[in-house]
Every structure is written in structure tokens, then in C-alpha cells.
Specification:
Number of helices: 22
Helix content: 55-70%
Largest sheet: 2 strands, antiparallel
Mean pLDDT: 78
Order of helices and strands: HHHHHHHEEHHHHHHHHHHHHHHH
Distance between the termini: 57 Å
Number of strands: 2
Strand order of the largest sheet: 1-2
Strand content: under 5%
Length: 431
């Protein structure tokens, strides 16, 4: 959590506090006048609490804001309980008086934008009670809801992620308090099979994958998939091959009906290109440092430790056989005292090209930013930056045209234009 986040959280906390709470913290005196010194002390203490994660407050904040209130696949009872738990943690970690807790937590929930969970919870409970039975007793002749049945219904609804809409549909289909929990479960399963969409839109599927909810809830294979894929994308290493090797990626494809190439492209587009280029710069920097090490070395070699570190930084173990051969040739030349520095430059340029090709650092390349990419690559010491960027740009244009062209109704001129784009990518334009 950065300092900007902490400042925002502290500001939110202060605005959510009642006058009585502010007086308890000695920020306001009895007349309601603010004490600036005490205010600064409170702010600094609060930031320190967040910094040190006292009482789990930072974790609570982070987990709270991971909850997607727009995700209709989440169970309202489960969301309500989670939000209350995180609000409790935040409130208690700041050391507020428990006498003010009820009002203070309510204010905090409103200011953080989670008050809607209260309304959703109440609406859901009302819908759930339709499937409950009423009982009378000798002590009370008026029929009351069966508390045991209600507890069973709540447990059932959370275990099966039953939504408000599904409860309404059960009611429309004639299910009621007369039905057993098992009958309600079977009805939900049948309903979901009948209403299952052909595919889950990428945005919905990605949100569910990140939050381990919906189609991916309780799936151990996908619990880390989103984080792993994002890490690869930010490092510029999310290729189709890397995607397919990531645990849980096949489940994601099953839900979205996307190809591995389409999913890889969509995930790369989620990432800020500056992060990908930062990783690229780090890799190119290790190659440049190794060159300088050989140039400045009395033995005219790059040390085995440096080469081992380069192997890890560049991710050579994931390269193709062809690019691994480039690495071997570079490593042999770098560690050979008889190979002059000038000759190493040739191997270095080939290594840089293999490194660039091994990842997906240019996945966000387009017409608007291609000159920017060329400038950055030149600054990194890549001499053939223009050639590399233009070739990648042509590849992306060709792929876009292939995806959009209707071959069944395309004219010969359109097909010829596409062929030219593909040949241009390979450097062999038809005329």
C-alpha cells in the first residue's frame, strides 16, 4: 500500500468519524474546536498503524476493496459478512471506543461506499424467508419463522452461491417452504444448466478469476491464475506458450470460449505498457553490463556468476530451441578470453533480439505509439529498433485483418491486401 493510498484512507476515516469520536481522539475539544497538534498526532498514528498493518488493518483495507459489488454472482449474505468483518478490523485496529462502535462502523461503511451491502442483505433475507416455514408454540400462538430452517437456508445459499435472481426464479417455478434443502439444490443445478450462457464475457470471467468467485469459486486450480498471468504480462513474458503453461488457464478458456491467443492478447491489454518496457529495459541492461564487464576485465571475460544471473533475468529456460542456441553462442564468446570485445558485440545484438522475441514486450504496440517504442528501444542500445518495431507492427496489423475479414464474402482485392500485409511482415512484399 503506497503513501497516497494511506493518506486517502486516513482522510476517509477522519470524515467518517462522528464529533463524539473526534472528541475521544482529542481532536475536538468540548466546544467543538479542532486541536491541530492532536489532529496531526492522530493522522501520523493512523498512517503508522496502516504502515505496520497493526491488527491486520492494511490487509482488511486491501481485501475490502477487492470486493466487486457489481458482481451479481456473489452471494449477498457472504458479501455482507465479509464487509462487516473488514469494517470491524479497521475500526478496532484504530482503537476507537466500543461504546461508539455501532454508529462509528455504520458511518465508516457509508463513507467507504459499502452501505449498499446492508440493503442487499435485507432484501435477500426477505427473499430467503419465502422458503422458510412458520411454527407456533404453547408460549406464542402467533406463527414464527423456524430459526433452524432459516440457518439451513442461509448455509445452503452461501454454499451454492445462490443469487437474488435465482431465488425469485425458484419462487416463480413453484418452489416454496414445502421443499427440502435437497430439492432446492437440485432445482438450482437444473436451472443453471438450462440457463448456462454459451460463453462468459472476458471482463466478467476475468473479474471472477481475480476474486475466485462465480465460475471459479472453490477451484484450487485457478486460485492463483489471475495473479500469475498478470505478473507474466507486466514482465512482458505473457506469450501464448506461457499462457498455456499457467495452471488454471485451460479452465479460463473453457468459460470464455476464447483461444489461447485471444486470451493472451486480452490480458496483455490490461497491463500498462510502461511496466512491460521497464522489464525489457532491465533485461537489456544486464546484457549491456556484461559487455562492459568484459571490456573492463583484465582477463577479457564475463564471469560465470554474471552469466548465471543473466540466464535467470532473461528467462532463457523458456526460450525456443533456436534462441537457446543464440544464448549458448553468446555465453561461449563472453566467457572466452580469446574473443575480442568488438566481436562480442555481434553476439550481443543477436542475444538482445532473441530476448525481445522471447517475450511479449510489444503487445500494446499500435499506430499511435510505434515511434515512441522505437525511441525507447534505441535508448536501450538496440540498433535495429526501427526494423523490430515495424515488423511487430505489421504482424499485429495482419492479425487484425485476419480476425476481421469474412473470407466467405471477401473480394479478391481484400484477400490480396491481406496477403501483402502478411508478406510485408516477413519482409517479402508482393508488387
Amino acid at each position: 500500500m503506497g503513501i497516497d493510498d494511506k493518506t486517502q484512507y486516513v482522510d476517509t476515516l477522519l470524515t467518517s468519524m462522528s464529533d463524539d469520536m473526534l472528541k475521544t481522539a482529542n481532536i475536538l475539544d468540548e466546544s467543538g474546536k479542532m486541536n491541530e497538534i492532536n489532529m496531526r498526532t492522530f493522522v501520523n498514528r493512523t498512517i503508522k498503524v496502516l504502515q505496520d498493518n497493526e491488527g491486520g488493518i492494511s490487509n482488511a483495507f486491501n481485501e475490502l476493496f477487492k470486493i466487486d459489488l457489481d458482481d451479481e454472482t456473489l452471494n449477498p449474505i457472504e458479501i455482507y459478512e465479509k464487509v462487516n468483518s473488514y469494517i470491524d478490523t479497521i475500526y478496532e485496529a484504530l482503537g476507537f471506543d466500543e461504546e461508539e462502535a455501532k454508529e462509528g462502523k455504520k458511518n465508516l461503511k457509508i463513507l467507504l461506499g459499502f452501505e449498499v451491502t446492508e440493503d442487499n442483505y435485507n432484501d435477500y433475507q426477505n427473499a430467503l424467508r419465502y422458503f422458510n416455514t412458520r411454527k407456533t408454540s404453547p408460549d406464542n400462538p402467533f406463527p414464527l419463522f423456524d430459526m433452524d430452517r432459516q440457518a439451513e437456508l442461509e448455509a445452503w445459499s452461501k454454499e451454492n452461491d445462490v443469487t437474488q435472481e435465482e431465488l425469485e426464479n425458484l419462487k416463480k417455478n413453484g418452489y416454496s417452504a414445502k421443499n427440502s434443502i435437497e430439492e432446492l439444490t437440485n432445482a438450482i443445478i437444473k436451472m443453471r444448466k438450462e440457463n448456462a450462457p454459451d460463453k462468459l464475457p472476458f471482463d466478467n470471467a476475468w473479474n471472477q478469476l481475480k476474486n475466485n468467485s462465480g465460475a471459479f469459486k472453490d477451484n484450487d486450480d485457478t486460485k492463483d491464475t489471475a495473479n500469475n498471468l498478470l505478473e507474466l504480462a507486466e514482465a512482458g513474458k505473457l506469450t501464448v506458450k506461457a499462457f498455456e503453461k499457467t495452471n488454471g488457464s485451460d479452465d479460463f478458456l473453457t468459460q470464455t470460449k476464447l483461444t489461447a491467443k485471444e486470451a493472451t492478447q486480452a490480458i496483455n491489454e490490461l497491463v500498462d505498457s510502461s511496466k512491460q518496457l521497464s522489464e525489457l529495459k532491465k533485461g537489456i541492461g544486464t546484457i549491456t553490463s556484461a559487455y562492459n564487464e568484459k571490456k573492463d576485465s583484465k582477463s577479457n571475460t564475463v564471469s560465470p556468476d554474471t552469466l548465471s544471473s543473466m540466464y535467470d533475468t532473461l528467462g532463457v529456460d523458456t526460450w525456443t530451441k533456436k534462441d537457446k542456441k543464440v544464448w549458448e553462442e553468446y555465453k561461449n564468446a563472453a566467457g572466452d578470453a580469446s574473443v575480442p570485445v568488438k566481436k562480442l558485440k555481434k553476439y550481443q545484438d543477436e542475444l538482445a533480439k532473441s530476448y525481445l522475441n522471447s517475450g511479449n514486450f510489444l503487445s500494446n504496440l499500435n499506430d499511435d505509439n510505434k515511434d515512441y517504442y522505437k525511441t525507447l528501444l534505441k535508448e536501450m542500445g538496440i540498433k535495429n529498433a526501427k526494423e523490430i518495431v515495424d515488423k511487430k507492427h505489421n504482424q499485429l496489423l495482419a492479425l487484425e485483418q485476419i480476425a476481421s475479414l469474412d473470407f466467405a464474402s471477401a473480394s479478391q482485392a481484400e484477400i490480396q491486401q491481406l496477403e501483402n500485409e502478411i508478406l510485408k511482415t516477413a519482409g517479402r512484399q508482393k508488387h
